[in-house]
C-alpha cells in the first residue's frame, strides 16, 4: 500500500540534513509513481494522485521533476545508473577478461531481476515519453552496451574469445535474453536470480570460447 504519511514540517537537531531530506523526497516520489503506474497505468495516474500518495506538495514534486514524463524516465534511469556503475567497476578489475565478462553478465541479470517490476512498468509506457527522453534512454543504454562490447573485443583481440561472431552481435544476443526476463521470470520460481545470472553467463562464455 502507498503511504500517505507526511513528514513533519519542523526540523530538530536529529533530523536528516536538507540534502538527505531532498533525496528522500525524490526517491519517495519515484517509488510511489512506480506503484501507481503499475496499478493504474501511466495515462491513468495524475501528478496530483502521485503527490497526494507521496505526502508532498506539487511544489516539491516540481522541484525534482519537471513532468510526469520525468518520473517515468527516472523509474528506469535509476536502474540503468546502478548497472552502469557496476559495469564500470567490474571492467576495471584486475582480472582476466573472461572473468570480468562473466561477472558483468551475471550482474546485469541479477540487477535486472532485482528491479524487474520497475523495468516492466517503464517498457510498457516508454512509447509515451517525449522524443528527447526516448533518445536519452537509448543513449544511456548504448553507453552500457558499448562498454560491455569493449570487453568482448578485448577478449577477441587477445585470443581468449573467438572472433567468429562480431562483438556487436554477441552483445545483442546476450542483452536480448536479459530484456526477455520480464516475460517469464517470477520471484519464488524454481531459479534464484543468481542461478539465472550464472546460467546466462556460462552460456555466453561457452559460445565465446575459441
Helix and strand topology:
Blueprint: H1 18-40, H2 47-54, H3 58-64, H4 68-91, H5 97-114, H6 116-125, H7 131-157, H8 167-179, H9 193-208
Question: What distinguishing features does this structure have?
Answer:
single chain, mainly alpha, Arc Repressor Mutant, subunit A, Tetracycline Repressor, domain 2, 70% helix, elongated, disordered N terminus
Give the end-to-end Cα distance, rounded to a whole number of Å: 52 Å
Percent in helix: 55-70%
List the total number of helices: 9
CATH architecture of the largest domain: Orthogonal Bundle
**Order of helix and strand elements from N to C terminus:** HHHHHHHHH
The average pLDDT score comes to: 87
**What integer value in Å does the Rg equal?**
20 Å
Low-pLDDT segments: 1-16
For the record, the count of structural domains works out to 2
Number of strands: 0
* DSSP strand content: under 5%
